[in-house]
Design goal:
Strand content: 25-35%
Largest sheet: 9 strands, antiparallel
Number of domains: 1
Helix content: 25-40%
Distance between the termini: 159 Å
Shape: elongated
Order of helices and strands: HEEEEEEEEEEEH
Length: 264
C-alpha cells in the first residue's frame, strides 16, 4: 500500500489570525483615509468662509472709500442693531464706486448693507442694496444681492477724527432740538473712517439648519478693517463753507453797509 506524502497547509488558528490582522490593517487604513478627508473638508470650508469674508470686506471698503452724502436730509446713516443676540448693524450711504450700466446713469449710487436670515438654513447672510437712480426715498428701492453667507455678526464703528461712535446720522431729527451739533458730531456729515468687524461661520457652506440657540461648536472667523472715507474732508469743507456763507448773509442782512454819501 502506497503512503501519501505530507501535504502542507494552514490551520484554522492561522487563518483566524490572518483574517484578524487583515481586518485590523483595513480598518486602520479606512480611519486614516476618513480622517484625511474630514480634515480636507474642514480646511476647504474654512478657506471658502475666509475667502467669502475677504470679498465682503473688500466690497464694503471700496464703497466706503468713495462714500458721499446720500441725500440732502440724510448724509450718512449707520444704525446699531441686534438680532437674536448677534450684532447686525445697518449702513446706508451714497457712493461714487459704481459703473453705469444703463442710459442716464452716473457713478452715484445709493448703497445699503444689512443682515438678513436665510429662510432655508436659518443662518444669517450679508446683503447689499444698490440704487443708481436717486429719488425721494434714499433708503429703499434698487436691487439686492447676497455677498456673504453664514454670518455670526456685523458691526460698524464710526470715527470723526477724535473718537469712535457706535451710530452715525440723525434720521429722526433729534439733533434739531439741540442748541449745537458740535457736542454730537455723529449726527451730521460724513465720518472720517469706518471700522468694520465681521464674524462669519467657518461652516458657512453647510446647508444644515442652524440651532435655535444660535450656538455652534466651532468659533467664528473674525475679520476687521478700517476704511477711510476719502471724500469726507471735501464734504465737511463744503458744509463748513455753506454754514459760513449763511452766517455772513444773515449778518449782512441785519447790519446793511452804510452808503458812501452819509448816514442812511
Amino acid at each position: 500500500m502506497r503512503t501519501r506524502p505530507n501535504a502542507s497547509g494552514f490551520t484554522l488558528i492561522e487563518l483566524v489570525i490572518s483574517a484578524s490582522l487583515m481586518a485590523l490593517i483595513l480598518t486602520s487604513a479606512y480611519l486614516c483615509l476618513s480622517s484625511g478627508m474630514s480634515s480636507q473638508k474642514l480646511v476647504d470650508s474654512r478657506t471658502e468662509a475666509l475667502q467669502s469674508a475677504r470679498v465682503a470686506m473688500a466690497m464694503m471698503s471700496a464703497d466706503l472709500r468713495a462714500a458721499c452724502p446720500l441725500s440732502k436730509e440724510i448724509a450718512f446713516l449707520g444704525m446699531r442693531r441686534m438680532v437674536e443676540e448677534i450684532d447686525a448693524d445697518n449702513l446706508d450711504f451714497g457712493t461714487h464706486h459704481y459703473t453705469p450700466q444703463r442710459a442716464r446713469e452716473g457713478d452715484f449710487c445709493e448703497t445699503s448693507y444689512f443682515v438678513a436670515r436665510e429662510p432655508e438654513s436659518g443662518k444669517f447672510s450679508l446683503w447689499r442694496r444698490r440704487d443708481p437712480t436717486p429719488d425721494d426715498e434714499p433708503l429703499s428701492g434698487g436691487s439686492r444681492e447676497e455677498i456673504a453667507r453664514g454670518l455670526r455678526g456685523l458691526r460698524f464703528e464710526y470715527y470723526d477724527g477724535w473718537e469712535w461712535f457706535d451710530e452715525w446720522g440723525d434720521p429722526q431729527g433729534k439733533g434739531k432740538a439741540e442748541n449745537s451739533l458740535r457736542e454730537q458730531p455723529n449726527l451730521s456729515g460724513l465720518p472720517e473712517a469706518v471700522r468694520i468687524t465681521l464674524w462669519i461661520d467657518p461652516q458657512a457652506r453647510s446647508t444644515a439648519r442652524a440651532p435655535k440657540e444660535g450656538k455652534t461648536s466651532e468659533p467664528p472667523v473674525i475679520l476687521q478693517t478700517v476704511a477711510r472715507l476719502n471724500l469726507a474732508a471735501i464734504s465737511q469743507r463744503s458744509s463748513s463753507d455753506a454754514a459760513t456763507n449763511s452766517v455772513r448773509n444773515a449778518t449782512t442782512e441785519s447790519n446793511p453797509p452804510t452808503p458812501e454819501g452819509g448816514n442812511p
